[in-house]
Structure formats: structure tokens, C-alpha cells
Design brief:
Layout: H1 31-75, E1 79-89, E2 92-100, E3 104-114, E4 118-124, H2 128-134, E5 147-150, E6 152-159, E7 162-170, E8 180-190
Antiparallel strand pairs: 1-8, 2-7, 3-6, 3-8, 4-5, 4-7
Length: 191
């Protein structure tokens, strides 16, 4: 006879193992492990199939980026809100709309690929009319995201759910400078 725990040979009829000291009697299989096996087979597998089918339906209806964004919103995982190159003409500004589906830490990075240094600010959607009508100076913006005449920019700060604008402004006149700037912008939201 072998010990059911350490598998060393022990005399037949022994109550305890001479090697490990554990009971030599084989333990009956508990009913909880049997119930767990039934649960995994009867409930977990169909749940996994339903989740997969839901994910597949999202991919078909909204495309891969849309589906990834919906899944990231529901599960509160990091999500890339924009990753693109923008063109800003000299002596003008461009606003990039950013919709945050949940509260989190917003990471904004930009790099002027070609062109002039830019002013950068981040504001609520409510400030867009102020910017259009009254100009740059009257806008109430998030000072943690502001920069002046920068060619490389990276900021990170907690922001609440909502709609915002990242505004890029080229203050050069275009005479002695580049007539336009190409700017690589990446905005990521982390829970």
C-alpha cells in the first residue's frame, strides 16, 4: 500500500504514514469539488459564449475601434480617444473634440512634426462659444493642460466624465515661419 499524500510505501492497514505523518486513509472526494465542476460546465461556459457573441456583434456593427471603445468604457480599462495628426494653419487655431466616457486620468501628448511651436489649452465644451466669440483670453481652461509655444507636450491629470476640447493655436504670422504645422496628437484615458 502507498500513502495517498506522499506516495511512499507503508504497511497495509496503517492508520498514519511513517514518512509524512498524514492519515493513510484515502480522503473521500468532497461534494463541493463535484458541484464546482457542474457549475463550470453548466453556467460558466454558456456565459463565456454569450460574452463572446456580444463582443462579436459589437465588432460587426461598430467596427473594431468602436467595439474596443465600448468594451473599454464598460470595463473601465485604458482607452485611446484620439491618435492622429492634425494640421494647424499659421495664425489660426484648431479644436479637437474629446468625449470622456468615465472619470479617469487623462494623458495628452503632442509633438510638432513639422512647423511652428503651438499654444495648447484644454477646456469644457461650454467654453467653445466663448472661444469663438470672445477670443483666447476669455476662455476658462484647465491650467494643468496649458502650454505656450511648445513643440513637444505631455500632460496627465484627473478629469471627470464629459465633453472637452483640446485646442491648438499657432500664433505665428506665416511670413517668416511655416505656413502650417503638422502635429501628432495622442489622448488616452486611464481609470
Amino acid at each position: 500500500m502507498n500513502c495517498p499524500h506522499c506516495q511512499n510505501p507503508i504497511p497495509d492497514g496503517s492508520q498514519f504514514c511513517n514518512h509524512c505523518g498524514m492519515s493513510a486513509q484515502a480522503k473521500p472526494q468532497s461534494s463541493s469539488s463535484f458541484k464546482l465542476g457542474r457549475f463550470v460546465g453548466s453556467r460558466l461556459l454558456p456565459l463565456i459564449v454569450i460574452v463572446f457573441l456580444g463582443w462579436y456583434a459589437l465588432r460587426v456593427n461598430y467596427g473594431s475601434k468602436g467595439a474596443d471603445r465600448i468594451v473599454a468604457t464598460v470595463t473601465h480599462t485604458p482607452i485611446t480617444l484620439t491618435d492622429e495628426t492634425q494640421n494647424v494653419a499659421a495664425n489660426s487655431w484648431r479644436a479637437i473634440g474629446i468625449s470622456l466616457p468615465y472619470n479617469g486620468n487623462l494623458d495628452v501628448s503632442l509633438h510638432v512634426v513639422r512647423g511652428n511651436p503651438l499654444d495648447v489649452t484644454f477646456m469644457d465644451a461650454s467654453q467653445m462659444d466663448v472661444l469663438k466669440n470672445s477670443g483666447w483670453r476669455n476662455v476658462e481652461s484647465y491650467t494643468n493642460f496649458s502650454a505656450v509655444k511648445t513643440a513637444s507636450y505631455r500632460r496627465s491629470y484627473p478629469v471627470n466624465q464629459g465633453t472637452y476640447y483640446l485646442v491648438l493655436r499657432d500664433t505665428s504670422l506665416g511670413i517668416l515661419s511655416q505656413s502650417a504645422s503638422d502635429v501628432a496628437v495622442k489622448v488616452t484615458l486611464n481609470p
